[in-house]
Each structure stands twice: as C-alpha cells, then as structure tokens.
User: Fold Glycosyltransferase from Acer saccharum.
Amino acid sequence: QTTKPKMHVAVLPSPGMGHIIPLFELAKRLVVFNHDIHVSFLVINTDQDNSTARDQYLYSTPLPPGLDVVDIPPVNVSDIVRDDMLLATRISVMVGESLKSLKSVLIELGKLEALVIDLLCTGAFEICGELSIPVYSFSTPSTTFLTLSLYLPTLDREVEGEFVDLPEPISIPVNTWEDFEPVPLKAIREHSFFLQLPTPPVYPIGPLIKQDESLSSSDEECLTWLDNQPADSVLFVALGSGGTLTTEQLFEMAWGLEMSQQKFIWVLRKPDDADASSTFFNVGSDVNDPNSYLPEGFLEKTQGVGLIVKSWTTQVAILRHPSTGGFLSHCGWNSTMESITHGVPIIAWPLYAEQKMNAAMLTEEIEVAMKPVKGPGETVVRREEISRVVRLLMESEEGEIIRSRVKKLRDSASRAVDNGGSSYDSLSCLVEKWKNEIKP
Ligand code: UDP
Assistant:
C-alpha cells in the first residue's frame, strides 16, 4: 500500500510583525485547508530583532498538524545595520545576511513544491532557481501597491531583465479579495501590455488575518472593560507594530481624546521625536512608565473613560468586540484588513512605509475612513482637530454612513473566504497547481 505523497511548501517572511502575521496565517490556513499539505514556516533571527510579541505569537500556541516552525540559523547584523538606515534597508540587510544559509536550510527540508516569500525576501529567487523550487510572492500590502511595484521596472529599464530571466513563472498570492480591489486586479490581469511586463498570475486569497491568540492579563482586562460598554461606543487607538508619535503629537493626541469625551482604548508607547517606527524591532518589549511622558492630569481626567494598554495588545480580539466602534489606525495593511473584516470604521493616521497610500485609498476611494488634518504651517495635528474627527466618526450621521459601508465590506470579506467564495476558489487553484508540481 502506497501513501499519497504530501505537498511540502515552505513559507518565508521578512522580519516585522506586519510580514510575519499574514504569512503565518497563510501557513495555518494552508494546512487546515488541505490536509495533504505540509508547511515549514521559516523564521529569520537576528540580534537586532527583540520582539517579545513575535515570540509569543510564533512559539506560545500549539500548531495545527502539518505545520512546523523552522528557525533559520541566527545572524549578527549589529556591525552593518545603522540607526540612520531606512526601515526597508535595515530589513533588507537582515534578510540578506540570514539568507546566506537559506540554501542549506532548503536542502535540509527535502523536496519542496513551492517557497512563498514576501516582497523583502526576493533574495530567495536566485537560490530557488538553483534548486528548481518555484517561488511565489505573497503581497503583504495592497494590490494597488503591488500594481505600482509592477510598473516600476518599466520606469527603470535596467531591472526589467531580471523578471524575464527568472527560471519559473512568478505567481502572486495577494492579501485582498476580488470585490475589494477590483480595479488594480483587473489592471494586473489585463494590462500587461500597459505595464510592459510579463505580469504574473495573481491569486487574491485574502483577507488573511490573525485568528486565535493567547490572551495576557492586560488583554483580559481590556476585553472585560469592553464587555461593560455599549455597542460601537469605544475608539481603539493603535499604530501597528512600530508606530510611535513625537512628544508634542502625543500630548495633542492625549488631550484630543480627552476633549472628544468618547470612550477609548489606547495602545500607548514612549514618544520618539526622530523615528515614527521606533518599536518595529522590539514589539512588546519596550517596558516603560506612561506617567513619565503623558501630560500631567490626563490619567485622572480620563479615568473610567479611557483605558491605556502598554506597548501591545491583542488587536484582533479588540476589533472583534461589539463595543469597538472606531479604530484610529496607522493604516498598515494588516490593520486595515482586520478593521474592515470586523466592520470597524477608521480614523486614518498614516506614519511610514506605504501607509499614506492606504490612507488615501481608505478615505477617498473606499470611503471607510476619515482623516484629521494639520492646520496651515503646523507640524502636528492639534487636539481640537483630533477631537472633532473622533466625534464625527463616533457620533455623527456621517460616521454612521461610513460605519454601515464598512459593515457591508465585512460581509463581502466573509463571503470571499467562505467555501465557494472568490478567495476560497483562488486558494484551491493555487493548491491544485502545487499538487501538479509533485514529483515522484
Ligand atoms: N498588532 C497587535 N497588537 C498591537 C499592535 C499591532 O496585535 O498592539 C498587530 C495587528 O493586529 C497587525 C500587525 O500587528 O496584525 C500590524 O501589521 P500592520 O500591517 O497593520 O502594520 P505594521 O506593523 O506592519 O506597520
């Protein structure tokens, strides 16, 4: 009696919770979706990345059968990573150093039908070319961003050749769904002539969002507090894994929230005047005392109205709670997906990376967000403006219209991933393709 050979797929995210979370959720979905798939989830470890939130997420909950977490040998990058480097450059350096051992890690894993990477791990293409492993690139940002990325080579003829020379066709699973970004998806599929590139097949399989998590005592406290609030009455304030405010902006945010007289939960971090992504590599590890940087009197004045959580919380559990009625977010793509999937309207507070693009899309195109603006000549958004927008979202008729629009999108997202929905079918196609790759 012969046993059916399993498909073996490896998944490799670059450092950063915004990359690790959706790829880990993909890995989990794959093994649950099809029991003939074995997934090896590869983790990059460097001496610069000290996120307790990451370790908690990856190593503290039992894994579904068929999924293994495999640590790539750790590397020291302190000598080459400088504080003044752009975030994307720092991540690329970490990935570059770590991928020096990718070949031996992949050989050790044995036969693979595919390697799924994210857009900062493209160094894997060459190695996979040598090993004849097809590479799939998971787009952690929006399809709008992906379309732009695809267009870049036509602007820069020199890199065009690299796409053509790839040993395998590239397919792109995308964290979106058909009805959410129909225009860029159509652009990729139908306008390869316009893009002047052999555009790869795209598989919209999203939204892929964080599911179950273990709860800390402060998470439990937040959820119990939410249980005692009316439906849609609480604003959740969180800026992703890395986001931080300047000292001045943090003051304005605090008094703006207080002035709005709305209930809130605020994931609070020490301000940083130089870097808006200052907790990116130490998520959940920045132990600090909010009393030392919050404006005097703020905690007393907001007692019972606002809840402060230090550094990190289970965002999805909060967004899922029926009392949560708004999300002041930096508009990272995962946060965007999580908010929409739970029918929560957004106050857009973009900070870095492609967040401004997401914020523009959410406010102007999809119309599920409002955006506070700086006054002329101002370097920060003032408290009056913050309070105005918070009240508008939480209390006004305009806010109600946005809320009902996002609830419709929530239903569309849920239809997409259900059995027979567009994302479900897309994932089935992809798995079918891998099945055909199985070599005896
Ligand atoms: N997140 C969380 N708790 C927090 C802040 C963020 O669980 O206190 C999660 C959030 O649910 C999302 C991810 O971290 O899944 C952040 O990804 P996103 O793409 O929104 O932003 P990035 O951190 O990459 O800027």
